[in-house]
Design goal:
Radius of gyration: 21 Å
CATH architecture of the largest domain: 3-Layer(aba) Sandwich
Shape: globular
Number of domains: 2
CATH topology of the largest domain: Aminopeptidase
Structural class: alpha+beta
Distance between the termini: 48 Å
Order of helices and strands: EEHHHEEEHEHEEHEHEEEEHEEE
Length: 313
Amino acid sequence: MATDESDMLTLRPAMPDDVPLLRHWDTQPHVEAASPNDDWAWETELLRTPPWRDQLIAEIEGRPIGFVQIIDPALEDSHYWGNVASGLRAIDIWIGESRDLGQGYGSRIMRRALEHCFAAPGVTAVLIDPLAVNRRAQRFYERLGFRFLEQRRFGDDDCFVYRLTRQQWRSRSTGHAIHTSEITTMTTPHLYFEIQAEAPDRAQHFYRELFGWTFTRVEGLPVDYWRIEANGMQGGLLKRPAATPPDECGTNAFTCSFEVDDIHASAERIASLGGRVALPIFAVPDTCWQGYFIDTEGNTFGLIQVDEGSDLT
């Protein structure tokens, strides 16, 4: 069992007693949409413990919120992945209840699952296979560093195969150096951002509770500074070196926007944590829902919910 003291997220083995819960989750619309042709045969499979598979329940402070399956695709007995090299792992993951979507749980569970996979020295890469039509899932994995490998059909499902190598995972876990040259060319999608805060502890609480970000203090710098692990992105938090500008001054900086699964639920969460609305949620037709908010330190940030059916009406 793995535990993160900062958010009390645990992964424990799934047991036969979990069958009613898993059957209930199977009926949830967002779970059915992600795996419309799957029958997991829980009553049978939870009694089996083959060495090539881990079936895990994700919990927050003892409350089940999701399921994770990790397999060795070279040894898995149905040969779902066909002939593949050794040293790989494949992951299936989902959140059980719709109310737990948009809370950052999926990213935290996936990071924990990746830690579990790469803890084995012989594992070189992890595979996932979201449906080809599930752009939201694909963007989720892309944010975690997975790279598209191929489009492939598994039974009745048309899927995109993504891969994350150990080297890619390690580089995202340890951060990225910032390089400059006479010609500045953005060659990768990697982002590093910084947040200034009058009260760093208050800011950490806000973003930890909103997005599930983790903060690590960096020693030896001339300012108080914390490194941020933000669901695959890297950032920093520092104590504001000058007075906080009043609201009417506007934003004198770049504004970062973050993609969420449910922008309306996230907006409610922001208000409950002491944040405010800067610009109410609006539709970008046929693209997304977007809104801008102010954190507890007076910083403006945006949220985006991708929705190709968004409309002004």
